[in-house]
Amino acid sequence: MKRILFSLLILLITTVAFSQPIIDIGLKGGVNSSNLHIEEGRLLDDNGMTLSSESFTKMHFGAFGRIGWNKVYIQPEVYFSKKGGNLSSNLFELTSDFDYKNVDVPVLLGYKLIKGGAVDLHIMAGPVFSFVTDANYPSELDPFLHDEFFNEHLFGVQYGVGVDVLFLTVDARMEHSSKIYDDPSVVSGNATTFMLTVGFKIL
Questions:
Q1: What pLDDT digit, counting tens, does each position of 21-35 carry?
Q2: DSSP string across the chain
Q3: What is the pTM of this model?
């Protein structure tokens, strides 16, 4: 594994050193389908209560930059999004959205599998840093959920595949985040998100 990582690092350094950088800046937007993965603690079990979550779809929009050398590129982004899930309780006959708004900042490393004149096919992966600006949950769960257990800073990973066609770029990605809510005695949960994004290169 160390030899593979070292070889990839040497390849990246060599590519950067001998290639003229190409810089793109653009706007992006799309849809994301997210779901909460609930881990219940002792308090909910003692009350005979269980929670479940189904996915829901929301929008995201923002901007991206890309600096590339031949087939390798780095793509930082910043965008606003809304994530969460549709939360259900067997005790309260409750079905409602558990959602949070956040600013996401991914920093992705990409590689062009096919580098054509007008069409490029690429893969990408990297970390994403999220800053939660607002979180909402059903008022019926006030006895169990408390604001102090919402995490305002999240860390995750993204990976996916995309295609560039002239000035357009289309990506399909998966994102796995750290815990948005973390109270081990009651309930904790993190999110998995599928994203479909369209970007427009303006520079």
A1: 788 999 999 999 998
A2: -HHHHHHHHHHHHHHHHTS--EEEEEEEEEEEEEEEEEEE-HHHHHTT--EEEE-EEEEEEEEEEEEEETTEEEEEEEEEEEEEEEEEETTTTEEEEEEEEEEEEEEEEEEEEEE-SSEEEEEEEEEEEEEEEEEE--GGGTTT--GGGB-SEEEEEEEEEEEEETTEEEEEEEEEEEEEEEETTTEEEEEEEEEEEEEEE--
A3: 0.83
